[in-house]
Amino acid sequence: MKKINIGIIGLGRIGQIHFSNLKYCIPNANLVMVADPQKAGEFNGVPIGTAEEVINHEKIEAVVICSPTDTHSVYIEKCALAGKDIFCEKPHDLSLERVVCTLESVKKAEVKLMLGFNRRFDGNFKKIQQLVAQNKIGDPTILKITSRDPGPPPLEYLKSSGGMFMDMSIHDFDMARFIMGKEVEKVYASAGVFSSNDVKEAGDIDTAIITLTFIDGSMAVIDNCRKAVYGYDQRLEVFGNKGMAQIDNNKHDTHLFFDQSGSHGALPLDFFMDRYVDSYKNEMERFVEALCKDEPVPVNGQDGLEAMMIALAANLSVAEGRPVMLSEIMK
Amino acid sequence: MKKINIGIIGLGRIGQIHFSNLKYCIPNANLVMVADPQKAGEFNGVPIGTAEEVINHEKIEAVVICSPTDTHSVYIEKCALAGKDIFCEKPHDLSLERVVCTLESVKKAEVKLMLGFNRRFDGNFKKIQQLVAQNKIGDPTILKITSRDPGPPPLEYLKSSGGMFMDMSIHDFDMARFIMGKEVEKVYASAGVFSSNDVKEAGDIDTAIITLTFIDGSMAVIDNCRKAVYGYDQRLEVFGNKGMAQIDNNKHDTHLFFDQSGSHGALPLDFFMDRYVDSYKNEMERFVEALCKDEPVPVNGQDGLEAMMIALAANLSVAEGRPVMLSEIMK
Amino acid sequence: MKKINIGIIGLGRIGQIHFSNLKYCIPNANLVMVADPQKAGEFNGVPIGTAEEVINHEKIEAVVICSPTDTHSVYIEKCALAGKDIFCEKPHDLSLERVVCTLESVKKAEVKLMLGFNRRFDGNFKKIQQLVAQNKIGDPTILKITSRDPGPPPLEYLKSSGGMFMDMSIHDFDMARFIMGKEVEKVYASAGVFSSNDVKEAGDIDTAIITLTFIDGSMAVIDNCRKAVYGYDQRLEVFGNKGMAQIDNNKHDTHLFFDQSGSHGALPLDFFMDRYVDSYKNEMERFVEALCKDEPVPVNGQDGLEAMMIALAANLSVAEGRPVMLSEIMK
Amino acid sequence: MKKINIGIIGLGRIGQIHFSNLKYCIPNANLVMVADPQKAGEFNGVPIGTAEEVINHEKIEAVVICSPTDTHSVYIEKCALAGKDIFCEKPHDLSLERVVCTLESVKKAEVKLMLGFNRRFDGNFKKIQQLVAQNKIGDPTILKITSRDPGPPPLEYLKSSGGMFMDMSIHDFDMARFIMGKEVEKVYASAGVFSSNDVKEAGDIDTAIITLTFIDGSMAVIDNCRKAVYGYDQRLEVFGNKGMAQIDNNKHDTHLFFDQSGSHGALPLDFFMDRYVDSYKNEMERFVEALCKDEPVPVNGQDGLEAMMIALAANLSVAEGRPVMLSEIMK
To answer: Which candidate, A230, A315, C27, D59, has a CA 20 to 30 Å from the CA of D252?
Structure first.
């Protein structure tokens, strides 16, 4: 069995998930070294070095980047220079210019770059994408995504997040492209602040409805909220001339309790760490598999760029109160 | 359009349902006269007579009997003698001997007799029966019926009801035969009193699990309770070598409400008057249709007799703590 | 019991529903005369006259108008002049000017005018409205309505329908106001023709996503399609800071069938005649009740006007590719 | 952190699940040695010895027994003699006498013995047990368990399995005691062979309905089948005077697809290896935790004995066609 030697930069919440999956669950991955400024010595039996040491480690073939967003582009460029394949958490970068530059470097270096849109690897979403790909839906004309968080992140995070569209909705923008299999042409976003003073203080929004128009005129609508009191809400529905498919939210259990006031069921899974636990594992498996077989990665740099442009168009749409063409964003 | 001239005996709760359906919803029924000792003059435009006058009215071709159970056999016999077709509410009678006698008279008079097992005409149950009849389930080997009332009837009613098996479970016994399309051979019933002092005082039971074994060895299990705090509960599931089908309980509405404690749905429809409103109309339509076309009625006297024998076997099973063969009942 | 003497103008599909409900199900309604150019003599025991005769019949206190849309305004004005209370099917009229004029006449004559937005009287939608009114949802910030027809109407109908927004979506616009209990300020609609050549020939659209912004910044999104192959689809979801509520579509039955390929459930109820059968009865009951008690009708002329303005704004939004303020419509 | 040194005997399907959980997911477990006659050297980094070497390894404190059923009693006794705590897969043994003897040895040696009724640690079943324990259901009077396998095991396995009640239903018998929190007094079982020639050849049954009566008269009914074409079916419902709770079967995903023939959902999870993957992990965690804290194990030898007696009573009930008291089994 071919094994890929891998390094990780960043052992925060997501970094540790990738660590655990690569170390315990993916047989053809071999963790060689990890980097995290908060940690020293070794982490669960893997030596800790600096980011530079990981990138330039002669045995390491691929680097998983889970460091803060503002370091992504730098590390990607260094990995490209060092000829290493790359997995990078979303978002690639908050600056469109930097993303474009970085993608150039990646292209020139002929290394692979996979973006961490993990939801594509969730069994539920994948099922819907397959139904579309198998032409069960016919031509998909309406896509509806509901994506609501249980609560907003802390103020500090909000301030450097790039805004709700770039930080949170970007997953839904990628999902829209993934399910529909077409490119977005126009974006109209309507938004407000209803649920959180922190969000207001950060100058951000917390609630939005975004309409995407694809190049063939078909449409998607996404509703987002930073705070759903009943918990994490991740649903989707796609409609076409041959049928409609939807996925329901994932719950803690399947119980129903009936008493004098009606029926009562379980809460949704708490947040992305619970809901998407399998998708994180699946995406890393697919990354390692693509490297082993020298195949294209399933989510590439262009996918990251497209989702980012939709987020920027949504920002502009809210600012100017009008639909925005994606062509306006990429001048 | 052929019209059938009909009389009704008994304008209690069920009698009024049949009245309303026959008068307003079934175009080929013509209500000629009704009888009810509590009423005089006319009822919603239909003249009121005595039971005798209804039975012997020269224009009346068919009589719908909704009077108290202990009068059923007498009225059936009189109708048979008068050559009138008969619809009779369940149970036919509490005495097996009287039922057998009455069926003889009906047979001799060559009139039609339909028993009021209205649930056969409920859209949900009918759908399951059709799936079985269309061989979608394959050979049905397990049938499960849940049938729970929201609360027990008053003590007075309980005392003259013939017991839970004869009064309430008899619908489920008929349903078991209807869905499985086979005859029952053996009955084992386990029962207790858990929910009501009235039931105890009446010497009855209020909770039971009854296992029916059919002549080919396939099985049905029925669970009954006189009191479900969450309301009327009517569900069914049938399993065979090609598949399984089930119906869920009917609710007031389809709403789901989600808050910090989970999801919350509507209560079931209150009781048989709500849940089976359509089935009462459908059964009467089918009765009138059978008369118009001179076809066999969809639920006949033998169906009533079979369900009754199962109820008697269940009584004996509880009394003696052993499975009882149906052949023991009909010596 | 007070009885209201009522006349009906128009005995098409909807007119006959109202006829049947008023005649057989609403005890304090008394049908005096009906009018329909295709019919003569009497209809199920009620004499047939001309529209003029109905409006001017000295016994008739209220008129139910179910004639073609282009006659609504004329009949409303005549009823107002004759001092008769009015129930009018939607849409009131295709011309905003005429609607405004007519409402003036109604106001001057001090008669009641109720518009036939029957969905407000559907048990499912009503339940959601109650949850909002009881503050279970908190401040509602996102409303989502799915409203899809099983198939488009015939070309002839399409040509004179006023377009999808005025003919079909208008129910959803009214629903949005009903559930949210607020006025709409801005409309953005994205639309296309995907499902039907007739629709294209009529110069109409068949698929749309409409975003409504209310005066407080909260939002609604409606997705419409003239043709859903799986049948009539009527769902709704409202989200606020205290919770979320949704209603599912209504199906023929509750059965689920499980075989080697998965689970399989029933189709939705066929179309509005099945799905909204109770709501038609309930709305007529509420109309008659409002007359009996001399109370305001639950859906008045202003409600019709508001929904119409949203439809006109949606038309303009599609034509000009921009969000449209309602204030632009009512100059 | 206290760590428990553990050995495993048997690395078949279940043994490998326990291996993987103990090695990778339970931090306070330390795998010292494993035994399997088919394997030599080391298994994923853990040295392989004989069963004797594992039991008598001086560092090993607890032994997990996953070897064939006919070796369980011998190994348990040896572990007890060696003073090791024990986790043993179900069934403990096919001979009641041997089980009783073994439990004596365990008691005398004052070691812990936990039986592998893993379903108690499934999140869905646990939720129902908690609702009962929290008195949300009130006094539970009816328990219904549906437990159907996707297909029968091979003929060879069937021949030495001890029969369906001992091999398969035993999980449901334990579940009934777990949920109800009471002891079973009487068993009535009705059974047949409908789905498999192998089963017939093995002299076994493949379909059964078993009614359990508890010491307070409350009841449970279990329906079992060795072959459900739609897959593994594990559901449960408990009813009491305060409410009812149920769990639905677990499916591959939450998708629903709607087309012209209705709605279509996913298949159930394939079999126990998928459905109970978490429960295997949870039970091992609880075993290790009980050892660390020196607490009683959550499922002990007596639990195994009780479930076994119910299975024997069910066998006798089918053989003699009558309800059997548990007191008849344990003479």
So the answer is: A230
Q: What is the pLDDT of residues D247-299, one digit of tens each?
A: 999 999 999 999 999 999 999 999 999 999 999 999 999 999 999 999 999 99
Residue D286 lies in a domain: no
pLDDT of the residue at B88: 98
Residue D52: the pLDDT is 97
Claim to verify: residue B313 and residue B167 sit in the same structural domain: yes
DSSP, collapsed to helix, strand or coil, labels residue D289 as helix
Cβ-based contacts of C228 with chain A (< 8 Å): 239, 244
Tell me the residue type at C112: K
CB of A205 closer than 8 Å to CB of A193:
yes
Among B111, B138, B165, where does a domain finish? B111
Query: What's the pLDDT tens digit per position in C152-197?
Result: 999 999 999 999 999 999 999 999 999 999 999 999 999 999 988 8
**Residue B330 Cα to chain centre, angstroms:** 21
Domain boundary among A86, A111, A136: A111
The answer to whether residues D214 and D220 touch, using CB atoms and an 8 Å cutoff, is yes
- Examine the domain organization and report whether A46 and A190 are in the same domain: no
**Are the beta carbons of C229 and D262 separated by less than 8 Å?**
no
Q: Is residue B283 part of a domain?
A: no
Is residue C33 in a domain?
Answer: yes
> CATH code at A146?
3.30.360.10
Flag whether pLDDT at B218 surpasses 90. yes
Sheet with B4-9, strands from edge to edge, namely B42-43, B46-49, B29-35, B4-9, B62-65, B85-88, B113-115
Q: Are residues A177 and A223 in the same domain?
A: yes
Query: Do A89 and A107 belong together in one domain?
Result: yes
Residue ranges making up the domain that contains A233: 120-276+307-329
In this structure, what CATH number is given to the domain that contains residue D60?
3.40.50.720
Do B177 and B323 reside in the same domain of the chain? yes
All residues of chain D having their beta carbon less than 8 Å from the beta carbon of residue C259 are: 229-230
Give the bridge partners for C72, in sequence order. Answer: none
Contact C263 D265 (CB under 8 A): yes
Residues in chain B: 331
Burial pattern D125-155, b for ≥16 Cβ within 10 A else e, equals bbbbbebbeeebbbebbbbbbbbbbbebbee
Give the span between the Cα atoms of B176 and C190, in whole angstroms. Answer: 54
In a domain, D295, yes or no: no
- The residues, ordered by sequence, that sit 6+ positions from B55 with a Cβ below 8 Å of its Cβ are B7, B9, B63, B75, B78, B79, B82, B84
Spatial separation of the C-alpha atoms in residues A163 and D314, rounded to whole Å: 64
Q: Do residue B262 and residue B141 come from a single domain?
A: yes
Sites in chain A below the pLDDT cut of 50:
none
Task: Please give the single-letter amino acid code of residue B33.
Answer: M
CB contact under 8 A, D242 and A259: yes
Q: Min CA distance, A78 vs chain D (Å)?
A: 33
Same domain, A262 and A155: yes
Q: Are strands B4-9 and B29-35 parallel, antiparallel or unpaired?
A: parallel
Measured between CA atoms, the residue of chain B closest to residue D191 is: B217
Residues D40 and D128 in one domain: no
ipTM comes to: 0.95
Task: Report the domain count for chain C.
Answer: 2
Instruction: Express as a percent the part of chain D with pLDDT over 90.
Output: 96
D264–C230 C-beta distance less than 8 A: no
Mutation target vs D (from B235, B241, B246; most D CBs, 10 A cutoff): B241
